[in-house]
Predict the 3D structure of the following.
Amino acid sequence: MSTDEHIYQQMRNAIVEHHLIPGTRLPEDKLSHAFGVSRTVTRKVLQRLSLERFVTLQANKGAFVTQPTQKESLDVLDTRIMLEPLLIPDIIAHWSDAHSQRFRAMIVQEKQANQNHQHEQAIQLTARFHFELAALANNSIMADYIKQLCYRSSLVIAAYGSHTSVSCDCDDHAQLITLFEQQRISAAQKWMVHHLETIKASIQFEDDDTADVDFCALFAPSSSKSIQ
């Protein structure tokens, strides 16, 4: 894995997991020092994160963790509500016993994260569940788009969600797998719409107060976050 890819994944995970909260300033010099790289490398990563809407670049002010507006947040979730059910017929067409085992194992991880009150990890796990399902539809363009939407909705949930935004996911996801195993396309599509609408309804738009961040401590090798 290249250095810039490693830094990109570390920063993206820190944003999604709410270690870097919306509105946090991201100084190139401090980040470069924390990662031990040049500012050119750091700038490249920030530009990539900006293209994916995790970071906002402001002229003469620098980079900040994106603070999703209410409209942007709802648009992301509404787009998922529209698109993810459309993939279900193709997902079911490619479904196998191996997929059942794989996704049920992921549900166990989600359950453990919720039981251990690891809210940020639970957010990442539920996003992974959804975008890895989308990949089974065998449409790489749509799968990549759903993956970005899942990460962006993770940022929304981290910023504005409550425990209920992810706490019910484990049992719910198990129900979806059962519907896939039973080849019940219509029921699975209705389940998906209801599930995503429930997440949307749990969002509460309140701003966080930004705080100074010790980037060296956050991104120290001993505290590195898992990379997906």
